[in-house]
Amino acid sequence: MSIKSLLQLILLLLIFIIIGGIYFLYFYSGSSKKEVMDFKNLNKIENDFNQDQEILEENNRLDKAKLENKKKTKNIDLNKTENEIKNITTNQVKEDQKKLKNLTKDIEYVATNKNGDVYKVLAKYGKTNIDNNSILNLEEVRGSITSKEKSKIYISSDYANYNYANQESEFYSNVVLKYDKKEINCDNLELLIDDDVAIAYNNVVVKDDDMYIKAQKISFNLMTKEININSNDKVEIKSK
């Protein structure tokens, strides 16, 4: 073989080697790098997904914890409310029992004054006053004053306080005093049986077949049946 042919052969081999190296470098090596990059990206995606999943789980855990705390708080408030209701109910029952224990039904008291007049008071309910044991607090009250020489006087009211130590009475709320053909209506009436005087005040109205008197305060003599107007303001007198 000649030198020229040998050189041509070596040159041809070099060309094949160069072409093969370029092919391997750009095709096989590029695919490997791409696979390595795809693998890294896949790992990053998986890591991000895992982190997001952990954050989501943590948020769910916190939400559940908040919900549990809210339920516990609600249960505590509910129990507190139930206990308060029980306490209020118990206290109310005790108070009602106390009232019932001190309450008396169908009360009747009879007293006489120095003139021999008989004063009788009847009440549907009554109880001893807490501040003064000599006073009875009465409800649905009816009373009468009977005299040997004078006509009978009738008294009624929603409530009254009767002091059996001095026989004085205070009637209030829808008070009505009747005698002969006259009627006295008022909000309050004090009856001083030893002095033979009744004092009516607050929205007083006196009426009979011939007369109508409206005043703030009057005094009424139980013996003579005389009426004295004790106030100058808001007095109204009409004749029928």
What does this structure look like?
Strands 1, 2, 3, 4, 5, 6, 7, 8, 9 and 10 form a 10-stranded antiparallel β-sheet that branches. Strand 8 (211-221) and strand 9 (227-229) form a beta hairpin. This protein folds into 2 domains: 1-104; 113-239, lipopolysaccharide transport protein A fold. It has 240 residues and is an alpha+beta fold. The longest helix has 100 residues, at 3-102. Helices cover 42% and strands 40% of the residues. The chain is built from 1 helix and 10 strands.
Q: Architecture of the largest domain in CATH?
A: Sandwich
Return residue spans where pLDDT drops below 50 for at least 5 consecutive residues: 30-39
User: Which percent range describes the beta-strand content?
Assistant: 35-45%
Estimated radius of gyration: 54 Å
Order of helices and strands: HEEEEEEEEEE
How helix-rich are the residues, as a percent range?
A: 40-55%
Shape: rod-shaped
CATH class label of the largest domain = Mainly Beta
> What structural class should be given to the helix and strand makeup?
alpha+beta
Q: N- to C-terminal separation?
A: 169 Å
Largest sheet: 10 strands, antiparallel
* Tally of separate domains: 2
CATH topology of the largest domain: lipopolysaccharide transport protein A fold
- The averaged pLDDT comes out at 76
CATH superfamily of the largest domain: Lipopolysaccharide (LPS) transport protein A like domain
What is the number of E strands? Answer: 10
How many distinct helices?
1
